[in-house]
Model the fold of this input.
Amino acid sequence: MKQQIDQYQLGPLVPDAYKQGSEELAAGENAMGTDNATAKTKLDAAIADFQKVIDTGVPIGLKREADRVAQAKSAADAAKADKAAPDLYQQAEQLQQQAEAKQKANSPAEAYALYQQAADTYAKAEAAAKQRRTEAEAALKQADAQLGQAKSQVETIQKNLESSTSGQNGGSTSGGGQ
Done:
């Protein structure tokens, strides 16, 4: 039970019961082999305390994870990840739906893991969308620079043509006068 509580970080959510259960677990383990009656009493008390942590902490932990998914989804939406990284975004949505279904089906451990995966996948979708946006902006800047260069070259060619044309016109006029 303690491993499960630690894995899902439920101890800080119900700190008094967690601390008491941890102390009773240690006392029970220390009494094993020397005073088995005390060991059993302490371990039974630890189980009761850890059960309180689970009963109280799991709903709080699931709510925390669902909120984390909602925040990650909002960030992905703001980055337009549904358009820029549709595969990742859809995968995150599916994970979120699976987590919600597992939570309703009273499978908190599976729901918790799926919520974590959903939040991580939304974050990946957001990062991919931002990366694509950065690449697109860089490509636009490069295209603008190339367009500027092309305009400059066209202007130079036009000036050269104009000076060449006016030079030819001027040369034939002065040559015909002599």
